[in-house]
Structures are given as C-alpha cells and as structure tokens.
Amino acid sequence: MKNLKTMVLVVLLAASLSACKKKDGGGSGDSLGVPECDEYLTRMDACAKKIGDSKGGGQLTKMADMMRKSWKEDVKDAEMKKSMPEGCRSAIRDMAKQNPDCDWGVATAPAAPAAGGGDLPPECAEYKAAIEALSKCEKLPQASRDALKQSYEQTSAAWASVPAEGRAALGTACKSATDAVKQSAAACN
Hints:
Blueprint lengths: L1 H16 L17 H17 L5 H18 L3 H21 L23 H13 L7 H18 L7 H20 L3
C-alpha cells in the first residue's frame, strides 16, 4: 500500500510541477533555492536510509532523485518557482502519512478506517482520463509526457495488488493526483 501511494505521489508531483515551457534563471548547486523543497528532498533521503531497500528505501531514493532533477528545471521558471513551496509542503504531509516511521517534521492525523470493495474507485478512472489529456499536451516536452505515462502505467499496475480494505485510501490518492494533473493541464490550453 505504501508503494502504491508513493507511486501516486510521484505522478502527482511530476505532473503538478512540470512546466510546458521553461524560462531561464533559478536554482543552482544542490540547493533548489526553495527551502520547502530542499527540506522535502533531505527528508526523503533520510527516510530512504532509515527504512532500507527491503522496505522501499530504494524506491524513495529513486523518487527523490527524479524530483530533484525535475525541480532543478522548474526553479528556472519564476512562475513555477512561486508555486513550488506549497506543493512541497503538501508532499511532506503526504509522505508523513505514507511513511510514519520517518521524521517528516509534521504531525499526522490518524488513518481513516479502511473500506471494502473490489472495484477501483471512480476517482482513479478520472485520474486516468486526466493523465491521458495531459499526455497529449504538445507544449509539454515529449520526455515529460513519456515519463508521465510510464509513471501512470507503473502506478495503475500496482493497483491490482491493493487489498479491498485499501480502496478508500486509493480513491483519495487518485483524487489528489487528478486535481494536480488538471491544474497542470490548464497551462496547456
């Protein structure tokens, strides 16, 4: 379940922080110049080390590296950079829920009771449609569109292993991801 949420978060962040066109100017070196995002990456790296590869640490490291690379480009666009702090704060809160054994620097609410059900929530179908729409955005670089589709395919493949009691959380994750993808898609219109 944690791996599924992590994959959904990757797609959410990649989609919400990918720009259709980049501009010059921005971060340099290891620091992005956005403290909230630097904190997110630092905490991701620390969590990956803490939990180890057998519990998904390698996946967290890959996700952090992917976000670091993407965000280094995003900070070059002044408009994108303005929206990054809230996105990174939200990502920290989400990761705190998914990996409560790590120090995320935020308090987490108790998990909602699990719900049953054999089918995927309708929010996940909406998420798929939003991904398909954004992947057609010609203003978005082809590499970004390909990465978006690949991340979605990996995420949706993982949904098959989600037990019935995890479906409610899956719906919430899909809804959040859909909202972020739709915001990104607005820049392509």
